[in-house]
Amino acid sequence: MERVRVLVFNAALGALDYRVPEGMAVEPGSVVVAPLGPRQIVGIVWEAERLAAKDVPASKLRALLEVLPVPPLHTSLRRLIEWTADYYCAPVSAVARMTLASGSALKGGGTTTEYRLTGEEPARLTPQRAQALDLLHGEQATIRELSEIAGVSEGVLRGMVGAGLIEPVTVDIDRPYPRADASFAVPELTAGQAEAAGLFTQSLRSGGFAPFLLDGVTGSGKTEVYFEAIAEALRQDRQILVLLPEIALTENFLRRFEHRFGVPPVLWHSSLKSTERRRAWRAIAEGTAEVVVGARSALFLPYARLGLIVVDEAHEVSFKQDDGVRYNARDVAVIRARFEEIPVVLASATPALESMQLAEAGVYRRVELADRFGGASLPGIDTIDLRAEPPERGRWLAPRLVEEMHKRLARGEQSLLFLNRRGYAPLTLCRNCGYRFQCPNCTAWLVEHRFSQRLACHHCGHETSVPETCPECGTPDCLVACGPGVERIADEVAEILPEARTALVTSDTLNTPERIGEFVAAAEEGAIDVIIGTQLVTKGYHFPELTLVGVVDADLGLEGGDLRAGERTYQQIAQVAGRAGRASKPGEVLIQTRHPEAPVIAALAAGDRDAFYDAETEARRHAGAPPFGRWAAIIVSSEDEAEARDTARAIGGRRPNHPDIAILGPAPAPMALLRNRYRYRLLINARRSAELQDVIREWLGAFDFPPGVRVNIDIDPYSF
Ligand code: ADP
Ligand code: ZN
């Protein structure tokens, strides 16, 4: 009798042993169905010596039911799953589940049914049917997904199928993706670009693990260069994974990709519809998907022949996942490349200090692109000291910035105003009694969105309409806005430049690929004079007419004691500055600040990146912060405040006594109430040499937490 260990998708159970029935062939990595009590569960066959399980006598073992028709997970992927679970103190099963991201993919290929509008439009319609006709235009998906999009019940939609308004479509899940052509449109590279690309292709040819930091100023052609690496991997018939920080930004990328390789890449992100997800997953596992462009979750997919990983905008915070398995996709990408024995390219104009340090230490090979493509020069950067040159009363843009915007408008050039704050104003008060609108579920103010006439919490999504009277004192029309959000800046631009064509770019306004596409096309054509946006506008775009960037409030990100506040501010402003003067016309950047002397701002104004990295390095070294020391956080949360506090105190009361580890707290977390859960936090600062994870595991392993309490461990946390 053969006995196998199976990792089942239940964190509490972990691994269980099963008997392999006569005639069933399994190997490590096989995806199987097994009985558990009265249920059936999916699991992965694992090497018994690598996962502990309860010792069950052979006579008590139950038999596996089925091997699913998907390729077994490679050894390299199983090692990656173990590594991730171990490093981030997460259950192995929780990590493994990210690999089988599409439950339905396990059913195998074949066909499935989707639905779409037939185009019939009868004269008389119920309001619900009219709504569905309106909202489902151009959509094709399962009935359940269509019901979500249209906001009507599945029953209504089935009725519409009966009435001939919606029709079924048979979709072939196995239909292949079009093949990319490595030689479709080969660009002529500059000498510097060719040298960089040569290093990547050489490394692909010689094989093996090779981590690169592609450090190139904005507009230097980093994308063109790693496209050549992709072309080489395609010629070798290997799969390529490109991780992008925000899927909202891929529109522009997709067009460039198609221009270079003749076909679009395969997309992977959380809002893929179920059929497309199933199709992509199968093509990835079978090796027919060649180039996959995805958000961080694409990292754990079971590629059949992965040959290259690229992490673009590698410094971006959105590579850090902040719930479930709290991993950093940038770091795990390097580990995956190591297990797969392939090259990995981290591309950025403003690499994280950790990446710079690893390059300096010789762990990463640094590849530099020092010049902008096509002779474009980097923009000149100047500060506006708001104390010396204040905006007019009730305004947020200083006279010098306004004057420069006027000049751009007169010359037919574009300006971009950057403020990383959605909505109209960050805080709304009653002008009579000072009542502040606060989220009932979170430690946060409600933000007024004037265009949608709502007050919204940016943490939990809670929304209310703007009340007609103050809930506290009853004064009518009482709201006053405090401080600016992008919507308010848009209002100001409409007042000072009434003839300008403006575009407001935030996740509230640009929330579909179509809208993003329309915006990009308009901006590229020069059909927009002033772009006003949040961090959404800071990266990736290339607008030839854009010659002025105004940073409305550079101090915003520097407030609050976040470990990475300085670095993030530097990166954001450097990235948004990089949008200016990318073509033939020179660019100019004006940074509004109250602290022009702050090291971050001074380094930006001087165009001295090394000065910033040096200052930041010293500050981090002094604080024992990464990359010199390490941080971890333990977050204890519960809907019951006393329970959260008491548990956090109990954990704190048994803190380990370790010479290389300092423990701070517990204290209320910065978001002390989030989505209706009270949160307490312990911070752990460790020397690099300390076995941080082992210490935490041993420490927390001694507890039995109450059922309503969640204890999350965050290794290398981003936000404190
Ligand atoms: P980065 O990612 O470094 O900011 P991009 O790859 O976006 O730079 O390049 C900036 C612009 O210059 C893009 O419009 C790109 O198409 C163009 N470009 C860069 N290198 C070349 C090249 N060798 N040939 C033609 N166009 C190029
Ligand atoms: Zn909230």
UniProtKB/TrEMBL annotation:
GO terms for cellular component: primosome complex. Binds 2 zinc ions per subunit. Residues 203-369 form the Helicase ATP-binding domain. GO terms for biological process: DNA recombination; DNA replication initiation; DNA replication, synthesis of primer; double-strand break repair. GO terms for molecular function: 3'-5' DNA helicase activity; ATP binding; DNA binding; hydrolase activity; zinc ion binding. It catalyses: ATP + H2O = ADP + phosphate + H(+); Couples ATP hydrolysis with the unwinding of duplex DNA by translocating in the 3'-5' direction. Zn(2+) 1 binds at C430, C433, C470, C473. It is an enzyme of class 5 (isomerase). Its cofactor is Zn(2+). Pfam families: DEAD, PriA_3primeBD, PriA_C, Zn_ribbon_PriA. Gene3D superfamilies: P-loop containing nucleotide triphosphate hydrolases, PriA, 3(prime) DNA-binding domain. Keywords: ATP-binding, DNA replication, DNA-binding, Helicase, Hydrolase, Isomerase, Metal-binding, Nucleotide-binding, Primosome, Zinc. Zn(2+) 2 binds at C439, C442, C457, C460. It comes from the Bacteria. Its EC number is 5.6.2.4. Component of the replication restart primosome. Belongs to the helicase family. PriA subfamily. Initiates the restart of stalled replication forks, which reloads the replicative helicase on sites other than the origin of replication. Recognizes and binds to abandoned replication forks and remodels them to uncover a helicase loading site. Promotes assembly of the primosome at these replication forks. This is Replication restart protein PriA. It comes from Novosphingobium marinum. The gene is priA.
